[in-house]
Amino acid sequence: MRYLMLLLCVILISGFVLLGLGAWIRYGAATFVDVLGPYSSQLSYICIGMGSVRSFTGLIGCCGVWKENHFFIMLFFFIVTMLFVAEIIGTVFVLTYRNLVRLVVRDASKNSLMTANMGPAAKDPISTAWNTVMVKELAQIPAFCVKKR
Q: Cβ–Cβ contacts within 10 Å for residue 60, how many?
């Protein structure tokens, strides 16, 4: 049972992954910052905060299982339950205000794409990604749907 519970402490690993993702967004990903625009700093802080909480929770769970300490195990399950409830509340919030969220995300994406895209011949990462997506999208559209100029 001890090894099974230690296997369930993947939360520790996911916390370290979120910490790394937050640090990468904050300090290393210039392309990611260009695409998200002003929202990249909030996303990096959210990833760092959630990664810290998950890492700490996973550490508590691993220590509680390994030492067979009932207090740590109960604290682990309490924190995991609170994280689950917070995720459900966040999902309900986003689904309730999905039109506003969609408008804000589209506006930010459109503004960052308009300022960062340098045309079809550009070699920067944002323009290359946009041009690749557009070529693939146009290839999937049937010929009778495309207007000829």
A: 23
Tens-digit pLDDT profile for residues 10-63: 777 888 888 888 888 777 766 666 666 666 777 778 888 888 888 888 888 888
C-alpha span between 105 and 94 (Å, rounded): 12
Tokens 């960062």 label which residue? 116
| 61-89 pLDDT per residue, tens | 888 888 888 898 888 889 889 988 988 99
Place of tokens 């290359």: 128
* Number of CB atoms found within 10 A of residue 20's CB: 13
CB 95 within 8 A of CB 105: no
Amino acid letter at 12? L
pTM here is 0.60
**What residues contact residue 53 under an 8 Å CB cut-off, 6+ apart?**
15, 79, 83
Rounded to whole angstroms, how far apart are CA atoms 116 and 122? 11
User: Can you tell me the distance from the alpha carbon of 36 to that of 105, in angstroms, rounded to the nearest whole number?
Assistant: 9
